[in-house]
Design goal:
The chain has helices at residues 12-40, 42-60, 71-82, 130-145, and strands at 89-96, 99-107, 151-160, 169-177. By secondary structure, it is an alpha+beta fold.
Length: 180
């Protein structure tokens, strides 16, 4: 797995310096995606991206913890802390009692998808920002594991991506509760 052999992430200043690295990632992602697609195929490429995001979240959690337990607020906290850009918007699709159980996140300013038309992937079933879904899922399940939430399991999946030719990026968050 990505960063598997890394034993030192550094201090929080090192994490902030990673914004420069984010620019490198953003502009090299099309080439990386092409390589993964060629070697692993579309389905495995999507899984690989999610795993990369989960691993990055595990490393970041060594030096930073989210303040909120609300999935939309957690995403906005991440954007403010590590990326620049507009806040995400969450649309509750289903509820378990009064609590949201299915949330569709709309992202107009994705930190990893290409900004220019024509940079989209040729394989539309692979989403550039699947790594963000893996990252988000790992953060939300960290909150579950530390018993900070009412939900007992979180899963996230990118369902639309600018990098795959869609109008905006969308992530579906499903939250399970003890009685479900």
């Amino acid at each position: 797995m990505f960063l598997q052999n890394s034993t030192r992430i550094g201090n929080i200043q090192d994490v902030y310096k990673a914004q420069g690295l984010l620019m490198v990632v953003k502009y090299s992602l099309p080439d990386v995606m092409g390589f993964i697609l060629k070697k692993r195929g579309p389905e495995q490429a999507e899984k690989d991206l999610r795993d990369i995001g989960k691993t990055i979240a595990e490393r970041i959690l060594m030096v930073w913890k989210p303040k909120s337990t609300n999935p939309v607020e957690v995403l906005n906290e991440i954007k403010k802390k590590f990326f620049s850009g507009k806040k995400v918007r969450g649309e509750v699709l289903e509820r378990f009692g009064k609590a949201p159980s299915k949330i569709l996140i709309h992202e107009k300013d994705c930190p990893v998808c290409p900004e220019e038309k024509g940079e989209e992937l040729e394989v539309s079933q692979v989403h550039y920002c699947s790594a963000i879904s893996g990252f988000t899922e790992a953060l939300l399940n960290y909150l579950v594991s530390t018993k900070q939430t009412l939900y007992t399991k979180a899963s996230c999946k990118t369902v639309a991506s600018v990098g795959s030719g869609d109008k905006d990026c969308q992530m579906l968050i499903e939250l399970k509760y003890g009685g479900e």
